[in-house]
Amino acid sequence: MKKGRLIWHNIPTRRGRTILVLVSSISILAIGISRIYLGVHYPSDIIDIFLLVVYGLHFLFGFINVIKKSILNKNRKAKVITSKRVERNLSSYLKPSLNSFSSPI
């Protein structure tokens, strides 16, 4: 998976990436067809595996998107909390309270 991502990020044009996807897809299909032709697997086995991989990738990318969104939301909340803390602390230093002028009992 890492090699594929390295290749993908090093191809600057959309046309090059489209060619990469087409060549990869044709290779995957050719391997599946060759397994059926050689009699190593039944066609249903190959179709099942293709569907399983597509479902797995769909689930994986959905899970990654959920994780990314939760991390972004946590960062946004952290920034808001931090800014409120800074504002509260600054206001306590800049605006002296009446209690600071009173004498202790």
Most strands sheet = none
Morphology call: elongated
Q: Segments where pLDDT lies below 50 for 5+ residues?
A: none
Question: How far is the N terminus from the C terminus?
Answer: 71 Å
- Overall structural class, as computed from helix and strand content, comes to mainly alpha
Count of the separate structural domains:
2
Query: SSE order in H/E notation?
Result: HHH
Share of helix, binned? over 70%
The total count of helices amounts to 3
Q: What's the pLDDT, averaged over the residues?
A: 78
> What proportion of the residues form beta strands (DSSP E)?
under 5%
Query: For this entry, what is the oligomeric state of its chains?
Result: single chain
Report the radius of gyration as a whole number of Å: 29 Å
Number of strands: 0
Structure description:
The chain has 105 residues and is mostly helical. The chain contains 3 helices and no strands. The protein is elongated. The mean pLDDT is 78.
Compose a concise summary of this entry:
The protein has 3 helices and no strands. The protein has helices at 2-10, 14-37, 43-94.
Keywords for this structure?
105 residues; mainly alpha; 2 domains
Topology of helices and strands:
Elements: H1 2-10, H2 14-37, H3 43-94
